Amino acid sequence: MAFLKATLLIAALQVRVLIKSIRFVICALVALVPAGIALAAGGVNDAEKIGAGLSIMLLAFAAPLVGLILGSVVIAEEVEGRTITYFFTRPLHRSALFLGRWAAVALVGSVLMAVSAATVSYGSSHATFRTLQPELHWKLQAERSTGWKTIQTGSRAVVRYQDEDRDNRRKHVSHLKPGEIIELPMDYRERPQRIVATEWKPRDLDLPEGFTGLLILSGSLGAAIYTIITAGLSIFVKRPMILGLAYAFAVEGLLANLPGSTQALSVQFYLRSILVDPESPMWNRWIPTGSEFLEPSQAILRLSVFGLILLIGCSRAVVRKQFLLTSFILGAAEAGAD
Fold first, then answer.
1. How far apart are CA 240 and CA 233, in angstroms?
2. Which of 199, 215, 279, 332 has the smallest number of CB atoms closer than 10 Å to its CB?
3. Can you give the three-state secondary structure of 80-103, one letter per residue?
4. For 198-209, what is each residue's pLDDT tens digit?
């Protein structure tokens, strides 16, 4: 009971210190990136298209970066500031100090990512800063001996085509109305081309059922896991952020996007398993072809077990680790010389 009370007390104190620090401001700005884009882009496209892209950004960019920045506070900040001996000479167990400080950064990181995830979901499904306009659909056609043949359809504001010299050209179509036609230069076979505006379609602002809750859960859990990884690295190296960034954005960036079982070696695989429905077309652009994910409950269980094992290992490492500071070593050497 005393161990738990000490852990909670340290966590509460660390939260107060953390929310007044520059690290918290930086992490809040990082979390605001996908949230701000969602609010600004809401209504520009269908909610599923915006939501899928920004949720991947949140899981692959914001959650790891917030976790890495906050996780380094647990041990590395005190070692670098040469104040670690103050904490470890208090009449408290080292594990309580470590767990309390980790719980504080994990809580702050998880709350930031939960707010960001909720804002991404809201922004994707609402036209916050604009009057909602329907989407114009068009056809790019080329004339054949049998008549006009459609060679491309779409709804983007810009149509790309090739002229008679096979040069790529662009044409804006956002000003068209259904039934209007833009005549284009002939293609390389000297056949007439044209763009035909076909119809207006209302924006689809509906997200899949349960999307918001799963995004909040995966984002919060991701931030907490990455804080453990950085906190563990900080026990053994002086610059855990460097190794953490290399792992999160280089190693995991590769493993999570390779087809096959290698994806299961990354945290991103389990975070995506919580959120992504591989049968839904909204993820086709963002998920590697042939990816197979776990059931959300299985992904949560395995990621939680991994985090718990890692946290226990870090706690034991803190107890056994001898933190020798250069300033104290030099001071002892000078005292011995005198």
1. 5
2. 279
3. HCCCHHHHHCCCCCHHHHHHHHHH
4. 999 888 889 999
